[in-house]
Amino acid sequence: QVQFVESGGGVVQPGGSLRLSCAASRFAFRAYAMSWYRQAPGKEREMVAAITVAGDSTNYAPFVKGRFTISRDNAKNTVYLQMNSLKPEDTAVYYCNARNPFNDHDDYWGQGTQVTVSS
Questions:
Q1: Cα(61)–Cα(48) distance, rounded to whole angstroms?
Q2: Residue burial 89-103, b: 16+ Cβ < 10 Å; e: rest
Q3: Is residue 49 within 8 Å of 59, Cβ to Cβ?
């Protein structure tokens, strides 16, 4: 059974930084594109950042571009999200997602980690 362990969430002041991690096990991590999504209360889940299988290409939502960086370490089966210059509107539960690039229906979700940006 695929298992994800997300960590790194917490409470931070505006302008601060956090680094999220999502470690996968029992899973062919190197074969999956990885993404981070977020969902704020009362809002739909939205894509934040994505990275290809090899890690050679990334994609960001406009509202985080220039502030967040997604990366992956295939040797550690882990994907990261470095978040800088955090804003109150970044407050949400952040989820990692793994998707088979050849089959959109073959995907998995982490359990989510809470990020709260507040003074």
A1: 5
A2: ebbbbbbbbbbeeee
A3: yes
68 token code pair: 């967040």
The helix/strand/coil state of 114 is strand
| CB contact set of 112 (below 8 Å; sequence gap of 6+) | 6, 39, 93, 94, 95
pLDDT digits (tens, 9 = 90+) for 45-82: 999 999 999 999 999 999 999 999 999 999 999 999 99
| pLDDT for residue 57 | 96
**pLDDT tier at 26 (50, 70, 90 boundaries)?**
confident
